[in-house]
Amino acid sequence: MKELLDKYAQDRFGNLESPETDEDKQQLAREVFGKNLVNILDGWLGTAFDLLGNPEPEEPFPRENESSRKDKAFRETFNNLDSQTKEKIKELITETATGLLFSTLVSFDQFDYGQLNITLSPKKFDNLKEEWQITNTEEMLDLHDELYKWIKNYSKKVKNNAT
pLDDT at position 127, please? Predict the structure, then answer.
């Protein structure tokens, strides 16, 4: 629930206030987890979209190396494509990256080797070693069922925030 994150996030450095109930702690932990996943998704989409849409990197490479050669090869190839093709490639990249994330969350929810537990130990509470449960929740949705809500709430790269 985005509202919980807005309410308990103290600053932009990841410091959280502690909700009063265990249910709110758990929901906040899931929201923080989901927001982080979407930020990572957006970061990789941004990298791919930059390679696809810009003939030159924003910052030149300080020296030639494998990364600069790969970057140049991508940009040169993609620069020759028309805008309609580039848009379809963006859609494909978005669908693939989102699908990969969705499938990873399914594997967390349905882990073959037993019950997979994910917890959050907030920074502010290091000395208390408080842990907020993210997985193993009987009353809550599976993580993969929440992905599209997280994308809708936090993504800046997924077109129209829908997949």
Answer: 63
Residue 150: name the closest of 20, 23, 40 by CA: 40
**Do residues 6 and 120 lie in contact, with contact meaning Cβ atoms separated by under 8 Å?**
no
Token digits of residue 82: 């028309």
User: H helices of 13-131, where?
Assistant: 22-53, 66-79, 83-109
Question: CA-CA distance, 29 to 132, in Å (whole number)?
Answer: 6
User: What does the DSSP assignment read for 77-110?
Assistant: HHHTS-HHHHHHHHHHHHHHHHHHHHHHHHHHHT
Residues paired with residue 119 on neighbouring β-strands, in sequence order? 133
At 109-156, the pLDDT tens digits run 999 998 899 999 888 765 667 889 999 777 788 999 999 999 999 999
Tokens linked to 145: 């069922």
**8-state DSSP, 9:** B
Place of tokens 């030149």: 60
Q: CB under 8 Å to 119, separation ≥6 — which residues? A: 29, 131, 132, 133, 134
Q: Taking the model in full, what pTM does it have?
A: 0.89
Round to whole Å and give the CA distance between 131 and 119. 6
